[in-house]
Amino acid sequence: MSHRIPDRPSMNLNKRSRHTTQPLTVHLLREGIMESEHTCQAVVVDHRGRTLSMAGNNASTTFARSCLKPIQAIALSATGALDHFSLTEADLAIICGSHMGTIGQARQVFHILWRCDAEPSLLCCPVPPAQSSPLHHNCSGKHAGMIAVCQHQGWLTQAYCDRNHPVQELILALMAELLHLPPAEFIAAHDDCGAPPIV
Predict the structure, then answer these.
(1) Dihedral sign, CA of 86, 88, 92, 94?
(2) Mean pLDDT on 96-117
(3) Nearest to 110 by CA among 82, 75, 83, 137
(4) Comparing C-alpha atoms, which of 173, 142, 165, 163 is closest to residue 65?
(5) What mean pLDDT comes out for the span 148-177?
(6) Residue 57 backbone phi and psi in degrees, to 5
(7) Strand 19-21 and strand 51-55: pairing?
């Protein structure tokens, strides 16, 4: 099912003042041999959200997915959970990134949960194939960060991936504040890891 964000009045400058090109084409090379080709769309806007320059279609929408992890992690500092649980730069890095599920990375995620007195069984991300714990999932750091916020705020950790859970509502509010947009303009659908990404 497709969704369309409602038109925003006065979002675009006069067409004569915009620079428009065709979508960007990116070639991935391996030792000079093209492995794959990707078509990309890019938009540059001013502080009021007005389009200044674009390549391709500035009205298209897509899910931000893992690009949102650093923004979702803002909830840790906004609530004070980051300092309260004495989380390290290594903890924050794995919360903000997608990892490969190595033993060392799984241990880093476990460290976050240990610091906030939470069990790995609380993670709602799935157990990857050939693994025995959700700690190895590439999004487990992000999930551990959400659990840390819940523990600090006294919120139930069950169903923390539900879009109506306080931690998800907080993340949405922070995103809306950062982008100067009302929360109602964002569309969310659950990702493969169980958390709702935002478009």
Answers:
(1) negative
(2) 97
(3) 137
(4) 142
(5) 94
(6) -105, 115
(7) parallel
152 contacts 80 by C-beta, under 8 angstroms: yes
- Cα gap 81→78, rounded to integer Å: 8
Residues 131, 126: Cα–Cα separation, whole Å: 10
Alpha helix stretches (DSSP H) within the chain: 69-72, 74-79, 81-84, 89-96, 103-115, 140-153, 166-179
What is the pLDDT confidence band of residue 197, given thresholds at 50, 70 and 90? low
**Any idea where the domains of the chain sit in the sequence?**
1-61, 65-185
Q: How far is the C-alpha of 137 from the C-alpha of 122, rounded, in Å? A: 13
- Answer whether residue 83 shows pLDDT above 90: yes
CB 73 within 8 A of CB 142: yes
Closest CA to 68 of 183, 159, 198, 165: 198
* Amino acid in position 130: A
The single residue listed with the structure tokens 């320059």 is 53
Q: Which two tokens stand for residue 19?
A: 């620079």
Q: Which residues on adjacent β-strands are paired with residue 25?
A: 39
Q: Which two tokens stand for residue 158?
A: 């069950």
Q: Each residue of 42-63: b (16+ CB within 10 Å) or e?
A: eeeeeeeeebeebbbebeeeee
AA letter at 49:
G
Higher-confidence residue of 57 and 5: namely 57
Comparing 9-13, 168-172, 179-183, which segment has the lowest mean pLDDT?
A: 9-13
What is the amino acid identity at position 104? G
Amino acid, res. 95: I
